[in-house]
Amino acid sequence: MSAELVLQIVLTVAAGLIGVGLFGALSQQSIVMVMMGLELVLGGVLVAGGAAWFFLAPELPDAQMLVVLALVVMAVEMAMGFAVTIAIYRTRQVDMVDMATDLRG
Amino acid sequence: MLTELSGGAIAAVAVLGVLAAAGGIAVFVVDSMARATFALLASFLAVAGMLLVLDLTYLAVITALMMTMEMAVMAVFMIMFMMNPAGLMPMTMVHNTRGSAAVGVGAFAVLVVGIWTVDWPTRDGEPPADPTRQLGEAIMGSHMLVMLVVGIGLFATILAGTVLATARGRYDRFGADLKASRPDDPVPGGLPR
């Protein structure tokens, strides 16, 4: 099996994770479930970054740095997401995005 | 051009890829929040396994450890905030399913068309003997600016997360100028300044 084919299969998995994550982030009403969708999108970035490093440019550390950056973004998203969830629940007892539509804009 | 991946490794990548995608789909199909959390954990462990097969041992271990802890924290939040954490009854909490599915499938389709039509470049060079060392040297050398920015971002996250999650800070208790002689507490007798 050629390397290009394996790369394409791995990238297709990454695309699948991104698609599922987008669907979840857009369709879920619960704030925590929205965060799960965003995490899945970032999981797709992890897979794509790892594949890009291994199959395209293993001599350069750039793709590895991209994976590190995606991991950091995941941690930041989780921490800030939970902090915002706590803050909005404390002030308004809101735990679903539809209950806070006045924040739109 | 042949890949360095053996047949077994290719099979492992394929199986883990299917597991990752199936776990991701299960997150939005199962009835319970707790099950959704563990489905997401399964998906991320499969992602970590894929990174492991691709020689990125350090990043794979980091992913597995971080995601295990993160999902443990998430499970606690599920039970704190969400209805139906145990999945004792069917649960659908969705809006605009059709539009969301269209966006998700559309994004997937665009990406797949790109992935399978692009003329991918051939591999440039060989993987180093120790990819972790390559990453460490990049972090401490050529890519230090990235880590500096990441460090500032994480520090800002710590501060912002604490400020957002604090119920009553010192400004609530002692006024905007912090000059009140007695703290304004709902229940008197709290700690002084």
Automatic annotation (TrEMBL), chain A:
Chain coiled-coil ranges: none
An MF annotation (GO) of this entry: NADH dehydrogenase (quinone) (non-electrogenic) activity
GO BP field: ATP synthesis coupled electron transport
Transmembrane stretches, start-end: 6-26, 38-57, 63-89
InterPro entries: NADH_UbQ_OxRdtase_chain4L/K, NUOK/Mnh_C1-like
EC number assigned by the record: 7.1.1.-
Purpose: NDH-1 shuttles electrons from NADH, via FMN and iron-sulfur (Fe-S) centers, to quinones in the respiratory chain. The immediate electron acceptor for the enzyme in this species is believed to be a menaquinone. Couples the redox reaction to proton translocation (for every two electrons transferred, four hydrogen ions are translocated across the cytoplasmic membrane), and thus conserves the redox energy in a proton gradient.
Protein name per its UniProtKB record: NADH-quinone oxidoreductase subunit K
Chief place of localization: membrane
HAMAP family: NDH1_NuoK (MF_01456)
Keyword Aminoacyl-tRNA synthetase: no
Bilayer disposition of the protein: Multi-pass membrane protein
Catalytic activity: a quinone + NADH + 5 H(+)(in) = a quinol + NAD(+) + 4 H(+)(out)
Name of the coding gene: nuoK
Key words, A-Z: Cell membrane, Membrane, NAD, Quinone, Translocase, Transmembrane, Transmembrane helix, Transport
Enzyme class: translocase
Automatic annotation (TrEMBL), chain B:
Gene Ontology MF terms in the entry: NADH dehydrogenase (ubiquinone) activity; quinone binding
One Gene Ontology term, aspect cellular component: plasma membrane
Keyword Membrane in record: yes
Compartments where located: Cell membrane
Enzyme nomenclature, EC number: 7.1.1.-
InterPro entries reported for this sequence: NADH_UbQ/plastoQ_OxRdtase_su6, Nuo/plastoQ_OxRdtase_6_NuoJ
Main location: membrane
Record carries keyword Transmembrane helix: yes
Membrane topology: Multi-pass membrane protein
Record field: transmembrane: 6-29, 36-54, 60-81, 101-118, 138-165
Enzyme class: translocase
Signal sequence region: none
Family from the record: Belongs to the complex I subunit 6 family.
Stated name of the protein: NADH-quinone oxidoreductase subunit J
Species in which this protein is naturally found: Blastococcus aurantiacus
Organismal lineage: Bacteria, Bacillati, Actinomycetota, Actinomycetes, Geodermatophilales
